Recover the amino acids of this structure.
């Protein structure tokens, strides 16, 4: 299995949509073959269309607020000692997270295809919130599928979705989290694909959704590359990019532009959700060696039992609480382009405390996982190593959990 | 010699009626009861579809999901499912059994291993919901080699070109999904429209047995008297749930429903 140079990773799949011959594909009911093919044709055409790119960039700049900041975390660097620690503050984006890029592109595509309704899944509520924002902006009706457990733990985002006029549909099946929300959303699409567009909230699902999402979030690394050259005059000789990985949309977008660099120069570190320290459950299929299986239309490493039943996950962060992982990350893992590890709930909380103590930055629980590993590893690096963490979400949505775990005082004082 | 599936269609045709296909989830609500249900309904049904319960089913509606979750919760495993079929076939060897499920369960079991055990236990056909054409080409050939019918699915969104290619690659039986819906949805398309599409398929592929499924219940089944076969699933799963909730015997209740369904098309 080999990663090709000079070809975007999203376009390195084979005819049937498999990366490396075995990840991804289209394991979908017959009914969805046609809408998926239609979407493929539309996307392949538009991504080469200069007018469409201009239109996309206009929305990215004027509405989403590109570029998001690239800042040095001076106090944290001094505290840790070792590498220089920087952050790409993607949570600056309109709505507070990277999910806005994919949502915007899907709404643009829905408009072009003449669909009036768009549906989407959400875990942490960001994908749903952003889709509801974009749908409102583009005049589309919006339905969001969300696990009942996540609705309870991510109330601020649920309120935002409703405010934007979206129907939030609670999903009570299975573990009542993201995995069930995606299933229910796909089921709804099966029944309504003639009138409705579907947005999959991450780089997961049938191959076309993986590609569209990866293409959209790649805005992050396009910006970062320019910012690096402005700051250092070049892409640094020792660069390490840390990102949390749930489905894998923010990490893929954070890395994509640097794919062709030697990994000795630009290293990618993906941090999965290890779950509670004492629990056997986790959301880290790459770190803990889960087997390949089929989930939501794609072959991927996924937590499952020997019968092929998908296993329940556990993580403090709803956005990472997913048993599978993008086929793109499976491909990056097996080609050894990226390295994957996990942080526990407790480690993420600790990192959140450290970051907010030293910096004026409030990463949500998802990027706090990445901060945890970055802080640990940065100690060992020399001062000319540039460590960058994608702070891809803001902790506002996690207020309830943070208050419960760390105390009211702590959350308020920050 | 005709394979048992084709023979079942032939026998129904002799009686000038469509074949009746039922769908129940293996292990719902227990291994024993699920076998009892199969035995009871096989008196009225021509072909038995046995669902492999999966916990992330992307094409199933509420009724079948409930059945599947119940079976999984009660501990059903692949080995048990094969045993249920095996035990059933000991009593009713000639009654065709078709497995219907999602590909991951087969993938984890290993395709070859799975087909070997299908053959051993007496499974006659396979419907894999999320392994569409052309992705299923290789596996469907493997099935044929093992004398197992691989049943292709067609839907209202299937284009004409695709329809031709799929029917060409299909074995003796084809499954037409009546409408854009998960299983168990309300029939939102007129029977006339469904029959139009059915006839289109029959015109392209007159020799293959084509069944219609999704949204078919006691109320709608008589509209499809002049077809090769009809599948009823969700209504049966719903009856199992209802019986359990009312502390009644699902075997008796489900058997009554299937008997009624059979009368409606006879």
């Amino acid at each position: 299995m080999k990663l090709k140079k000079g070809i975007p990773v999203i376009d390195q799949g084979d005819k049937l949509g498999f990366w490396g011959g075995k990840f991804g594909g289209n394991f979908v009911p017959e009914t969805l073959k046609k809408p998926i093919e239609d979407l493929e044709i539309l996307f392949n055409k538009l991504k080469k269309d200069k007018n469409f790119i201009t239109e996309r960039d206009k929305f990215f700049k004027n509405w989403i607020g590109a570029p998001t900041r690239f800042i040095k975390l001076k106090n944290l660097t001094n505290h840790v000692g070792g590498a220089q620690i920087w952050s790409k503050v993607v949570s600056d984006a309109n709505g507070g997270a990277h999910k806005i890029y994919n949502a915007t592109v899907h709404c643009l595509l829905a408009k072009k295809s003449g669909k009036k309704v768009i549906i989407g899944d959400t875990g942490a509520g960001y994908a749903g919130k952003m889709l509801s924002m974009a749908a409102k902006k583009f005049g589309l009706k919006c339905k969001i599928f969300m696990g009942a457990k996540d609705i309870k733990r991510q109330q601020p985002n649920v309120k935002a979705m409703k405010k934007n006029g979206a129907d939030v549909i609670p999903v009570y099946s299975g573990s009542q989290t993201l995995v069930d929300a995606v299933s229910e959303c796909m089921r709804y699409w099966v029944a309504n694909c003639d009138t409705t567009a579907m947005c999959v909230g991450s780089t997961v699902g049938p191959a076309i959704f993986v590609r569209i999402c990866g293409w959209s979030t790649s805005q992050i690394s396009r910006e970062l590359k320019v910012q690096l050259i402005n700051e250092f005059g070049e892409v640094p000789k020792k660069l390490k990019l840390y990102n949390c990985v749930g489905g894998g949309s923010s990490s893929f977008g954070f890395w994509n532009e640097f794919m062709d660099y030697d990994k000795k120069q630009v290293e990618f570190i993906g941090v999965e959700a290890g779950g509670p320290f004492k629990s056997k459950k986790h959301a880290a299929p790459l770190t803990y060696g889960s087997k390949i299986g089929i989930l939501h239309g794609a072959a991927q490493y996924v937590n499952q039992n020997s019968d092929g039943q998908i296993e329940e996950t556990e993580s403090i962060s709803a956005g990472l609480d997913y048993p599978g992982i993008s086929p793109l990350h499976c491909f990056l893992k097996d080609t050894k382009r990226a390295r994957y590890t996990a942080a526990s709930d407790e480690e993420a909380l600790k990192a959140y405390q450290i970051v907010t103590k030293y910096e004026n930055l409030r990463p949500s629980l998802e990027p706090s996982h990445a901060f945890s590993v970055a802080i640990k590893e940065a100690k060992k690096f020399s001062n000319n190593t540039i460590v960058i963490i994608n702070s891809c979400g803001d902790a506002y949505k996690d207020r309830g959990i943070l208050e419960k775990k760390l105390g009211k005082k702590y959350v308020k004082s920050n | 010699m005709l394979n048992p599936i084709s023979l079942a269609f032939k026998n129904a045709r002799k009686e000038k009626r469509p074949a009746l296909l039922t769908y129940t989830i293996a292990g719902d609500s227990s291994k024993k009861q699920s076998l009892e249900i199969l035995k009871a309904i096989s008196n009225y049904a021509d072909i038995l579809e046995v669902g492999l319960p999966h916990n992330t089913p992307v094409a199933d509606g509420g009724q079948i999901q409930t059945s599947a979750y119940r079976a999984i919760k009660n501990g059903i495993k692949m080995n048990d499912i094969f045993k249920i079929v095996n035990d059933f076939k000991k009593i009713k060897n000639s009654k065709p059994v078709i497995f219907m499920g999602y590909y991951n369960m087969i993938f984890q079991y290993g395709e070859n291993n799975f087909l070997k055990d299908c053959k051993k236990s007496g499974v006659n056909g396979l419907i894999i919901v999320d392994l569409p054409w052309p992705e299923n080409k290789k596996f469907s050939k493997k099935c044929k080699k093992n004398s197992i019918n691989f049943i292709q699915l067609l839907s209202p969104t299937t284009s004409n070109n695709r329809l031709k290619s799929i029917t060409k690659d299909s074995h003796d039986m084809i499954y037409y999904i009546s409408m854009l819906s998960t299983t168990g949805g309300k029939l939102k398309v007129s029977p006339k429209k469904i029959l139009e599409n059915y006839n289109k398929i029959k015109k392209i592929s007159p020799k293959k047995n084509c069944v219609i499924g999704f949204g078919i219940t006691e109320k709608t089944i008589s509209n499809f008297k002049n077809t090769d076969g009809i599948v009823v699933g969700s209504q049966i799963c719903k009856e199992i749930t209802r019986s359990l909730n009312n502390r009644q015997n699902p075997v008796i209740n489900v058997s009554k429903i299937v008997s009624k369904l059979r009368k409606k098309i006879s």
In short: Residues 186 and 331 of chain A are 24 Å apart (CA to CA).
